[in-house]
Design goal:
alpha/beta, Urease, subunit C, domain 1, TIM Barrel, 9-stranded mixed sheet, binds 2-acetamido-2-deoxy-beta-D-glucopyranose
Length: 891
């Protein structure tokens, strides 16, 4: 039936059938047949033409409807002449941002002006040197902000956000982004679940994000309609009042046809995401897409046929305008009036979606997560953590790995705005936007300043310049050559001796700190390694003995670079996982005796598992981290609840466990988590811990907990809430009172630890902050200290200031490779209160010390960087000196 409509000229079906039947029965009546035939033919012709003497009452409404369904999306005719934004808030004062370095996004992202910006009535009125008369007219109303040559860019636009729909902190029952009602649901709207009380609005604004496209989740192939919001809070406090240029369909099924339509947005997802929720295969998902699109395509076709008759005045038997409230949004997709945002990773998925768009002739606005940028394969993937505050960080990393700077800024501002069909909002930055740690000193949304009394960290003058970055051309060529999987295993230098030349500085770790061995601004030095050990560093004359007989040494020019301790990863299952989402590539979870009895074959509830037994070497994430200077990892057995087991420390550069130096220390500490799992209760977990510590010490578990109470190995507890951390401090005292021995306790996660900085310092408890830049993921994380511009201190600074030993962690196996940036960020954000040496310690020796790894000064890995120090963005790691592996690896 629908097919017929699509391929044949339209005839009202009921009338046609009846007349045809009538013909067959009347042909025998020959006498009447001629007259009748003439009459019938006329009637048939008239009815085929469908002309009625009087058009129906709804004719004019229907005609304008018919015009509107084919109207193209465009701004209203007077858009560029408008005097104020429709989001303008009365009473907002005009603002002059003067002496700004303005990146406009124009000229392919290369246009930069020095001048002033005038904001009025929610619009950017002018940019450049403004005429005195223009300003004088504003009189005393004008608020003047002196940018003092700081960089100003359009606000950051997050085109992939679940803010408000997947709220922060996450609460059971408040997660409104995934529907479980079906694979295909174009009729759902993310707007309906938008929570206006989310903690992340303010945090995102503090990162310069002004506008977000709120997408439904990716558990559905077609998850529903997405909406663009501005993140500022509104007087109305409603989700609707946050919308930016919403489509007219949101509060009527029949928008005023005279208005040009506005862009609509829709979420699609392919591959693993929709598959995992519905146990669909890719074939199932793609059929669901095709079936849905066929439906929408047919409705569109019916509407077009209907309208071509209506517009020709052929009303007879036309009936009602064909439509379907459930499918109207997808029909609009086929009409090219919806930006489709597809969440797809792999070539197979991208290809299927492109075929779909060809089959049903609709455009796709953006592929999210598409891992095509081989050099930074996880960059885009990362953009979907709900923490959009650090979206610019993604652009900074892309730039570091060779993405052109004009496009890097554009990718999170103007290009992104263009993808959504809109722009207009400003951020004043405390440094060049591509300098690591760039932080807004003010954010304007609709002309309204968003930061009440922003805290701005002191930064060196050169942070205002575009940072120099190393060259990754070779890696880019390799990535393409190997289809994104270039070989990563490090190669040993030939010969026992490696001489590093043109060395500007050498840092070395001691038992509990990092010290500067050598630094020179004038005469660059040398560093000599024998069998992986640094034997000498200094100016040339200092190392003559070591250089003696170095004729067949390997020489590496560091071009003013440096040697520093290798960083240490902790906090993710790196070393126990290859692909986090794929069980068959991972070590798996341990049994938890607090939840369920442990099999007897393991010794029952007194069993304790060693992470070292499950180590997996040679993962791409391990090698990628190694190649940026994260030379070792510490990991604990992966667990879902309270009980973990014995941690281990290992090399990220080794290919297998039997290689020299692959395992650094097989048993490092006892690990548990005390968190708000639904069960058992926090108090039950504490009770279990108390029992395990006080004894009786039975079996293998007893053996290691005895070592803990005797102060031999640390107890490492993952805890986030300040209340739990406080309880742990009390428990430590309780045990110590009994044993008179100092119990080594380390808290990891530690989102709220800053609240107890003084108490932690007093009781000698160290902290590994993970993530290093906190985010209120769940309730127990919610009292974070956000750092500049929202608070003067970051959590790290506050803890360090109080004398707490602090290390930082990596949340994901792939994020270990960002550790040098994260450590550098902590130092930059501290505005000079954390030295480079201390920052290096936070990323290396502190982590080892807090987690029970005992590495002597002589055995510690060192990393050689070219063109700068390990924590400078302009440096690149070129070698790893590993005394334990008795080698220098050249990367
Ligand atoms: C925009 O800039 C990029 C990177 O610098 C360059 O490759 C591209 O050709 C430029 N496009 C235009 C239209 O100039
Ligand atoms: C929605 O579903 C996707 C895909 O399964 C998942 O990654 C995401 O975490 C879900 N959102 C929430 C809030 O659970
Ligand atoms: C490196 O180690 C090998 C094997 O132990 C030894 O023979 C050699 O002398 C060492 N080389 C240097 C320069 O110390």
């Amino acid at each position: 039936m629908e097919k017929e409509l699509a391929t044949r000229p339209y005839r009202p079906p009921r009338l046609r059938g009846r007349l045809e039947g009538y013909f067959q029965k009347t042909v025998i009546v020959l006498g009447l047949s001629i007259i009748l035939a003439a009459l019938v033919t006329r009637a048939l012709n008239d009815s085929e033409a469908g002309i009625l003497s009087h058009p129906p009452r709804h004719a004019s409404a229907t005609i304008s409807r018919c015009h509107s369904i084919t109207a193209k999306v465009s701004p209203p005719q007077d858009f560029h002449k408008r005097s104020h934004s429709d989001r303008f808030v009365h009473g907002t004062k005009p603002v002059l941002v003067k002496r700004a370095t303005i990146w406009t996004g124009g000229k392919n992202g290369t246009e930069v002006y020095r001048g002033d910006i005038l904001l009025d009535k929610g619009l950017i009125k002018s940019v450049g040197r403004l005429h005195h008369g223009v300003l004088a007219a504003y009189g005393s109303d004008l608020v003047v902000v002196d940018a003092k040559n700081a960089w100003v860019t359009p606000g950051i636009v997050d085109i992939h956000s679940h803010l408000g729909d997947a709220p922060s902190p996450a609460l059971d029952g408040a997660e409104d982004d995934n529907s479980s009602k079906g694979t295909v649901q174009p009729w759902l709207r993310s707007l309906d679940g938008l929570n206006t009380h989310d903690d992340s609005y303010q945090l995102s604004i503090a990162g310069g994000v002004t506008t977000s496209l709120i997408l439904p989740g990716s558990a559905n192939a077609i998850g529903g309609q997405a909406f663009v919001i501005k993140l500022r809070s509104t007087e109305e406090r409603t989700p609707t009042s946050m919308l930016l240029e919403p489509p007219y369909n949101i509060d009527t099924s029949f928008p005023d046809p005279s208005l040009p339509p506005r862009w609509r947005h829709m979420k699609h997802a392919c591959g693993e995401n929709p598959s995992s929720q519905y146990k669909d295969t890719r074939m199932d998902t793609n059929w669901a897409f095709r079936e849905a699109y066929k439906k929408a395509f047919d409705i569109k076709q019916k509407q077009d046929n209907y309208c071509s008759l209506a517009l020709a005045g052929k009303w007879k038997g036309l009936g009602d305008f064909p439509e379907d409230l459930q499918w109207e949004a997808l029909v609009d997709v086929v009409r090219g009036r919806v930006k489709v945002n597809a969440h797809c990773y792999e070539a197979v998925d991208l290809d299927a979606l492109v075929r779909l768009s060809n089959e049903f002739k609709f455009p796709i606005a953006a592929f999210h997560h598409a891992s095509e940028a081989y050099l930074v394969p996880d960059l885009l993937k990362k953009a979907y953590v709900t923490d959009s505050r650090h979206l610019l960080y993604e652009a900074q990393q892309a730039y570091y790995y060779g993405f052109p700077p004009n496009l890097a800024i554009a990718s999170v501002t103007s290009t992104a705005a263009e993808v959504m069909g809109m722009g207009h909002h400003l951020v004043i930055w405390d440094s060049h936007p591509l300098a690591l740690g760039a932080t807004p000193s003010q954010v304007f949304i609709d002309g309204i300043p968003q930061l009440e009394s922003p805290h701005v960290a002191q930064k060196p003058q050169n942070y205002n310049d575009l940072p120099k970055v190393p060259n990754f051309d070779k890696e880019a060529v390799e990535a393409v050559k190997y289809e994104g999987l270039p070989p990563l295993a490090p190669k040993k230098a030939t010969g026992d001796v490696v001489v590093f030349t043109n060395v500007r500085s050498v840092y070395k770790r001691t038992a509990d700190a990092v010290k500067l061995l050598f630094a020179s601004e004038t005469e660059l030095g040398v560093a000599v390694a024998q069998n992986g050990s640094l034997v000498c560093s200094g100016v040339h004359v200092d190392c003559l003995t070591a250089l003696d007989g170095a004729a067949d040494a390997t020489f590496v020019d560091l071009e003013g670079g440096s040697i520093a301790p290798g960083l240490v990863s902790f906090g993710s299952p790196l070393g126990l996982n290859h692909i986090q989402a794929e069980d068959s590539t991972n070590d798996g979870d341990v049994f938890d005796p607090l939840v369920k009895g442990v099999p007897k074959i393991l010794g029952g509830d007194t069993a304790i598992v060693r992470a070292v037994d499950g180590l997996l070497f040679g993962s791409r994430d391990a090698y990628l981290a190694y190649r940026v200077g994260v030379t070792s990892g510490i990991t604990a057995p992966t667990h879902g609840n309270f009980y973990s087991g014995l941690g281990t420390s290992f090399s990220l550069g080794a290919a297998h466990k039997l290689e020299a130096g692959a395992v650094i220390q097989d048993i490092t500490a006892v690990h548990v988590s005390v968190r708000h799992f639904s069960k058992p209760s926090v108090s039950t977990q504490i009770a279990a811990l108390r029992r395990l510590l006080l004894g009786p010490h039975k079996g293998a578990t007893g053996h290691y907990f005895k070592k803990v109470v005797e102060g031999e190995i640390p107890l490492v507890v993952e805890a986030h809430s300040a209340d739990i951390i406080a309880t742990l401090i009390i428990l430590k005292k309780e045990i110590e009172l009994e044993t008179r021995i100092n119990l080594k306790l380390t808290i990891t996660g530690a989102s709220e630890a800053h609240i107890l900085a003084k108490e932690l310092a007093e009781s000698g408890v160290g902290v590994i902050l993970n993530p290093s830049r906190p985010f209120p993921y769940v309730w127990e994380d919610r009292r974070i200290l956000p750092g500049p511009p929202l608070s003067k201190d970051s959590a790290i600074v506050k803890l360090v200031d109080r004398g707490v030993t602090v290390g930082i962690g990596c949340e994901e196996i792939w994020s270990a490779r960002n550790l040098p940036f994260d450590v550098a960020w902590a130092a930059i954000e501290a505005g000079g209160r954390i030295s480079m040496k201390d920052a290096l310690a936070i990323g290396s020796v502190n982590v080892q010390k807090l987690l029970g790894v005992e590495v002597s000064e002589e055995d510690a890995d060192l990393v050689a960087t070219r063109g700068g120090e390990l924590l400078d963005v302009h440096s690149k790691v070129v070698g790893v000196l590993s005394p334990r592996r008795r080698s220098v690896e050249i990367l």
